[in-house]
Amino acid sequence: MLLIQLTKKLNFWVTEVTRLIVEFVNLLILVFWLAILARVILSWFSVNRDSPFYAIAVLVHGITEPVLGPIRRILPNLGMLDLSPMVALILMTLIQQMLRSAL
Fold first, then answer.
1. Residue 56 lies in a domain
2. Quick check: is 55 in a domain?
3. Which residues are 81's β-sheet partners?
4. C-alpha–C-alpha distance, residues 28 and 33, integer Å
5. Which of 15, 40, 79, 101 is deepest in the core (most CB within 10 A)?
6. Are residues 64 and 35 in contact, defined by beta-carbon separation less than 8 angstroms?
7. Strand pairing partners for 78?
8. Rounded to an integer, what distance in angstroms lies between the CA atom of residue 38 and that of residue 56?
9. What's residue 80's pLDDT?
10. Which residues contact 62 (CB under 8 A, 6 or more apart)?
11. How does DSSP classify residue 20?
12. Using CA of residue 46, residue 47, residue 48, residue 51, what is the dihedral sign?
């Protein structure tokens, strides 16, 4: 009887920890989505050191470059067109879908 109760409690905790991990990953993906979107929008404007948006641009670049840099190195060079944000967003969506289907 005690073993059954312990097994039920363990299953409950494993389920809760798994749910928390999935929610945390979903939150990280949302933050990356917003950061990539901000980077795309900021790329349309000239942001130099005197701009009030310079600090935001540096922060967004620091957040997104570890993900976009490797993707950019894999993708072929298309001149002025950078498809790495779109590929990153697609990959993050696929990861989210796999996590949701795993539960």
1. yes
2. yes
3. 78
4. 9
5. 40
6. yes
7. 81
8. 9
9. 83
10. none
11. H
12. positive
Q: Please check whether residue 29 is in contact with residue 95, taking contact to mean a CB–CB distance below 8 angstroms.
A: yes
Tokens of 102: 């795993």
In a domain, 11, yes or no: no
pLDDT, one tens digit per residue, over 89-100 is: 999 999 888 888
Name residues whose C-beta falls within 8 Å of residue 48's C-beta, 6 or more positions apart in sequence: 54
Give the pTM.
Answer: 0.78
102: Cβ contacts below 8 Å, ≥ 6 apart: none
CA 88 to chain centre: 8
How many C-beta neighbours within 10 Å does residue 36 have?
A: 21
Question: What average pLDDT does the chain have?
Answer: 88
Residue 93 belongs to domain spanning: 29-102
Q: Tally the domains of the chain.
A: 1
For 79, left (φ over 0), alpha (ψ -120 to 50), or beta? left
Query: pLDDT tens digits, residue range 14-39?
Result: 888 888 888 898 899 999 999 999 99
3-class DSSP assignment, residue 78 = strand
- Check if the beta carbon of residue 57 is closer than 8 Å to that of residue 42: yes
